[in-house]
Amino acid sequence: MQNFYTEQSPKTPLIECNPTSGVFHIKGKSVPENTLQFYKPLFEWLDNYIQTPAGTTTLNVQLDYFNTSSAKVLADLFKKMEDLGNRKKTDVLINWHYENIDEEMQEAGEGYRSITKVPFKLVPFTKP
Questions:
Q1: What does the pLDDT look like over 54-75, one tens digit per residue?
Q2: The overall pTM is greater than 0.90
Q3: How many angstroms separate the CA atoms of 53 and 125, rounded?
Q4: Are 99 and 66 in contact (CB under 8 A)?
Q5: CA-CA-CA-CA torsion for 45, 55, 92, 17, nearest 10 degrees?
Q6: For residue 88, with 0-12 CB atoms within 10 Å meaning exposed, 13-18 middle and 19 or more buried, which class applies?
């Protein structure tokens, strides 16, 4: 299975998924013109990955900002991670990285953690 990669732009996040290591990254801003169209290839890739996942799957999310339609897609993505974990083929961990002074991103992470049934860590960081 091939890696999944989407270049970061001013309106869309970097997305990197390595099926061998099971480590996935989403980083940047998520305000695409058509959110469903932008994320559709990722969900299609994940449908294939679910068939033969790595022993551990780690999703690292570090968004500076996301719009309402991206919020729904993130909830769907976390649900897909739950489904993956429920299949008992892989251990799933979600890391929500947020700048330690960004209360909105912290609260968003707390909200997602409260509705997600896989390990979900809030990871504050300080920008240099």
A1: 999 999 999 999 999 999 999 9
A2: yes
A3: 29
A4: no
A5: -30
A6: exposed
